[in-house]
Amino acid sequence: MDHSPPAAMLGRPIDELPTPAPLVDLDVFDANARVIADRLTQHGMSWRPHSKAHKSPQLAKRQLALGAVGITCAKLGEAEVMTGAGIDNILVANMLATADKWRRAAEVQRTATVAFCVDDERHVRMASHAAVAAGTDIGLFIEVDIGMHRVGVRGPDAAVRLAELIAAAPGVRLAGMMGYEGHLPAVWPAAEKTIKVQAAVRKLTGAADRVRAAGHQVPIVSSGGTATYQSAFGVEGLTESQSGGGCLMDRFYLETCHVELPVALTLAATVVSAAEPGVAITDAGFKALGSLGSMLPPLVAAPSGVTVSGLSAEHGLLAAGPADLRVGDRVTLIPGYSDAMIFLHDKLYGHRGGVVTEVIDVAARGRLQ
């Protein structure tokens, strides 16, 4: 087995990487990023891609260079990694519920602008106390429930009350509002998705209008994911989108969400057993690919005519069909869901033309607190 350090892989063909090997085609990643950024620009919106899939400052900086105004993180710990790498404009699309986490949120403001979501007066009070104690300023986004029924204030009246509390609290400011139409990515056909997404997003923009009418500035109104952001075009009042997964793509986006972008993220595996005709076993199971239970299994990108029929912890079961797969053959897989795969790996291998050009640290993996 090749125990070479990751840096030693630079300049090597991807077919020589030890498997399972997570791969990012950087030409495709960059092209997808440009497409998303350009589409948003054409509709007068900014791009703040979510980094919860790749968890990598290197890929976040690539997105910033390709048109993003900032990034989105899922966790405070992820944001701390990103700010430590020099990224200074972040929205944490999540709530903090303890004084210790708000203390960290106040401290991170010394090197970056990092905003956090709130939907409860206790969030505001803890944020204010932490900011005053640290001598910093924390931007807060009021999150609005627009149909997912997960987090967020229920309706514009509650948003106005929270805005009033933020305005009266020292050390905090209303930096924006957000909502997520995460219950709608799989809606199809496209016309039906557009109707439902726009109805959901108008709950957010309507709440923002009410907050403004009460005398408060709302500089940013943020929403959208890869599967839904285009459906929201035409809704007045949205200022930015958090769509980020489209840079990588996966089977979920391709088949369930009908996103028409090429795939940048794959996983190389090797056939380790082919004892039964028409069946092959690889060295990539759900601990490498992330697909488990009700999640979509991966697709076989190459060779053609092969399907994944099962995954155990460390093995993939392939129905080889007409393909004559033998021990040592390479198989390229498209993950079922990129978010569920990348965090299992320490490194990704960025390549161009089949040659490794960058070793990408998944530096924020495990930073769940």
Automatic annotation (TrEMBL):
GO terms for molecular function: D-serine ammonia-lyase activity. Gene3D superfamilies: Alanine racemase, D-serine dehydratase-like domain. InterPro entries: Ala_racemase_N, D-amino_acid_metab_enzyme, D-ser_dehydrat-like_dom, D-ser_dehydrat-like_sf, PLP-binding_barrel. Pfam families: Ala_racemase_N, D-ser_dehydrat. GO terms for biological process: D-serine catabolic process. Residues 264-352 form the D-serine dehydratase-like domain. The keyword Transcription does not apply. Keywords: Lyase. The keyword Lyase applies. PANTHER family: D-SERINE DEHYDRATASE, ZGC:162816-RELATED. Belongs to the DSD1 family. This is DSD1 family PLP-dependent enzyme. It comes from Nakamurella aerolata.
